[in-house]
What we know:
The complex is a heterodimer of chains A (277) and B (183).
Chain A: H1 13-16, H2 19-35, H3 39-55, H4 60-84, H5 88-93, E1 98-101, E2 107-109, H6 110-136, H7 139-148, H8 153-182, H9 193-224, H10 243-265, H11 273-276
Antiparallel strand pairs in A: 1-2
Helix pairs in contact in A: 2-6, 2-7, 2-10, 3-6, 4-6, 7-8, 8-9
Chain B: H1 5-25, E1 28-29, E2 36-37, H2 40-71, H3 77-91, H4 106-136, H5 140-172
Antiparallel strand pairs in B: 1-2
Helix pairs in contact in B: 1-2, 2-3, 2-5, 3-4, 4-5
Amino acid sequence: MRNVFNYIDRKSPIHELTGAAKLVCLLLWSFAAMATYDTRFLLVLPVISLALFFASGIRLRDVSFVLGFTVVFMVLNNVLVFVFAPQHGVSLYGTKHVLFSLGGYFVVTAEQLFYHLNLVLKYLSTIPIVLLFVCTTNPSEFAASLNRIGVKYTVAYAVSLALRYIPDIQREYHEISQAQQARGIEMSKKQTLVKRLKSAAAILIPLIMSSMDRIEVISNAMELRGFGKNKKRTWYMGRPFKAADIAAMAFGAALAVTALVLNRVNGGRFWNPFLAG
Amino acid sequence: MKNSPVKTIVAIGIGAALFFVLGRFVAIPSPVPNTNISTQYGLLAFMAVLFGPVAGALIGLIGHALIDFSYGWGIWWSWVIASACFGALVGLISSRLRVAEGEFGAKDIVTFNVCQIIAHVIAWGLIAPVLDILMYAEPANKVFMQGLVGGIANIVTTAIIGTILCIAYAATRPKAGSLRKEG
């Protein structure tokens, strides 16, 4: 079965970084990309992330499947924004430069196109870095990383359990679904919506009943081994920070600070080229 | 019946895994083209009723964040937080329902559904759109429309799937005081 988290084991400087350092970087990076709408800053981020991508040895082929989804999502979101609010850019930037009209309500303005450019840049600045994180971080190390950055170990352990049991539950769902279909359950478009939901329930009930048993078994096993007795625990996959990890986190912090400084300089989240002229 | 803390942790882990699998792979075609109905909120409501608000919030948070991660479009925090809030809000009635003791009658069905509808309205009608505007500066009418459509779809699926799950699970549990001493 295909691993949904797409971890690709290669030798590269990015793979060498500890999961915790990469997680901190990811959070700081996405914070920076989210905080500001400064176009100059948003142009720099995709360039850096592409450079990192090449450094990681992950090829475009490895992620093309996921990338397809994301592009569709991005286009759809942009279209929706335009359909619902063709003048959103005008209200954000406070000026109006009409380029041409598509008839009636849909007037294309320079401000609106500029806002869309910013939206696209935001996707381009976060997507590669998330993909990079997913492709270069071993899922087993992820829980250890969460604990390292201050998430309570019980919660980190829950994440680890989720990652561990996703393939099992996926397989079980598939088996139950085939068994129920062999007994005549129909979930395709030929059925009415309510019937489809009821047939979904016919698959979900056995799946969830067996999962409740699973919860019982796992929690008994963990309790027998004294889980949760101590305040701390160690992780098999945990690794100490090295110089490169510290440098990477410092870089992430620098990005986040830059974004905040830019917001202060620009007097808001938006960098406005329309007022300067 | 009170769950042990270890059991709650395991329930969060398995619940998040179920949420992920349902959200990612179980697609029921809806009448609107290219739109699938998400069944995971029925499951989330059920788990929240059984294990309480903290478990509900964390299942929504972890499960939804993992789905976003696996698609690679970055985490859409506003919607992840809305999922977590939905789990927490439904979890608030867990102390009033006794599904684990095999009780889920007509009155409980009403309580459950009123609560899930209120929770969905708060999550998708208020939290998700407002966070979208604050965090991503998206146009207001677009995000409220998205929230409305998503919210209504989620209310329907939760009403059907969540209720069926609660009834089915309650039926498998021995009722408290159901044993009688034979005379």
